[in-house]
Amino acid sequence: RVLVVVGLVLLGSPPLVAQVDPAVRYQQQLDALNRGDVAGAVALFSADAVLQGVGLCIPGCFGTAAIQREVERQVADRLRLTRTSTRTFRQVVLGQLEGQADSVQAAGAERIRLSFLALLRGEQFFLLRLTPDLTDPQTATYVASFQSPGAPPLPRPAGLLGALVVADTFDGAPGPLQNHRPGVAPPRAAWEIESGQWDLVQAQVRERSAVPADTRAVIDTGLTAKVLAADLTWVAGRMGLVLRYVNPGNWVMIWYDGFGTLVSAMLTAQGGFVELAREPWDWGAPGTPRHWEVQDFGDRFQVSIDRQVRAVIPTAAAAQCTRAGLFNREGPENRFDNFQVRPLLPGSVPALSQVALPPVPESIPQFRPLGDGRTPGPVSRYHAMRNGATGSRQ
To answer: Is 169 helix (H, G, I), strand (E, B) or coil?
Structure first.
């Protein structure tokens, strides 16, 4: 198993106030780990913390009991981490580390290099990741020692990517999507059409009904912790990705609304329609392809477009499920291509050098659900249409 993973990330919670300097707190955690103090290192994680991509924490450890088992493994491996660079803003600390351990030496390397990103809530961290720097020869040697014989080489410099579970370029004869088999998919998994007319056209998928209603096509990925990626070309209406799909009355989605806004929402039998977040973002000229990637962490998901992180959005109340797919509404010329799903593993986020971080103080976008007592937010166009609103759209 790979020793270390990725740093800490999580942007989309309500406003947080750090009680201490996050860089100071992270150094305290490193000091505890380096002296073999398991209890001291674990105490700096919140009870609901997530540690991902580390040894036993692939795809992730949730809660301090699971995190403690991984910290015990690191201490037994005599892991020592040293910060070589640091940046902080608000409750986030990120930078570079060098690490030494028995397993590193056993792999023929003297040390490894890592990027870290950590987020503080109050006085404790609640999400932590470490990303191996595969552009560094010694780190690459260490990571390669965990590959199975004959396995294909790991990609560079993007990081460790989980093996594709679903991969569909939509090649094949034109026709209904439900008659098409993806190039890679779990056994017996096939595209399911909830609604709409989904067809293969010129090695892409279009939903061609143009009806004023939601349409979705989904596939069972077999994964709950997963990364979805696809190339989307918007022309009109709305389009996006279905992150989780149980049935027509229970789903989570993220979509572009056609008016310069990313909207995320969920529908549940218990809570009805809930808009999770809105993020201003303009697609650009109609017909421009955009690469979307969404990481589903379970209690939150991160949205990246063209390798730029756009939002991290809490989804704690949403059901966990393995089906995911495509969403379209009133956009018969919108196109989907290169749909992929892979496990949520170390390096499945863009490397820090590839992420465009906005300047302080807007570095951490803060989202709020509607009706939380603060200034009322706009009713989403999607929500208004579901409830039969007429007249001009906001």
So the answer is: coil
**160 with 140: CB under 8 angstroms?**
no
Q: What is the pLDDT of residues 215-249, one digit of tens each?
A: 999 999 888 888 899 999 999 999 999 999 989 98
Neighbours of 313 (CB within 10 A): 25
Count Cβ atoms below 10 Å from residue 176 Cβ, excluding itself: 12
For tokens 């190039």, the residue is 183
* CA atoms lying within 13 Å on the CB side of residue 43: 8
**DSSP string of 213-238, one letter each residue:** S-EEEEEE-S-SSEEEEEEEE--SSE
Buried b / exposed e across 70-96, counting CB within 10 Å, b at 16+? bbebbbebebbbeeeeeebbbbbbbbb
User: For 377-382, what is the mean pLDDT?
Assistant: 33
Residue 70 sits at φ, ψ, to 5 deg, of -70, -40
Which residue in 318, 229, 225 sits closest to 268, CA to CA?
A: 318
* Among the listed residues 176, 169, 214, the one whose alpha carbon sits nearest the alpha carbon of residue 197: 176
pTM: 0.53
Q: Would you say 17 and 122 are in contact if contact means Cβ atoms under 8 Å apart?
A: yes
Other CB atoms within a 10 A radius of the CB of residue 209 amount to 17
CA dist 22 and 90 (Å) reads 8
